[in-house]
């Protein structure tokens, strides 16, 4: 092992990304938990809210999140039990179903989002000037598309 490899900027870049992600995840988890939801439940709700007609096929929801199809089923089961989502059958494919955001789900998001946006601004977007934020977001999309090609499955272009 050489010192050059250990000090490679690529190692630094991925380390910084990992540290930022774990720090933000901890902050977001705590803020979301104040509203009685786990971070993954919030992620499902926000992805539904940002999708056309506030609904996504369960398979697309799995592709957009870090969840397996069975993991999505469990999360949607919990959200459905709490009245935040409902399931509807796909009219063109009997094998598929949609998760749909309910009015109660919209209300829960409405309660969470002001504090969540404040946290995002305080710890992420608000720390960067616009001339840095735009290119960073473009770069993150490029990387996301390479490592998670299904991450925008079923999404509208503005929500991607």
From TrEMBL:
Xref: Pfam families: MarR (PF01047)
Note the InterPro entries from the entry: HTH_MarR-typ, MarR/SlyA-like, WH-like_DNA-bd_sf, WH_DNA-bd_sf
Q: Source organism lineage?
A: Bacteria, Bacillati, Actinomycetota, Actinomycetes, Micromonosporales
| Entry-linked SMART domains | HTH_MARR
The HTH marR-type domain sits at 7-145
Gene3D superfamilies reported for this sequence: Winged helix-like DNA-binding domain superfamily/Winged helix DNA-binding domain (1.10.10.10)
Q: What is this protein called?
A: HTH marR-type domain-containing protein
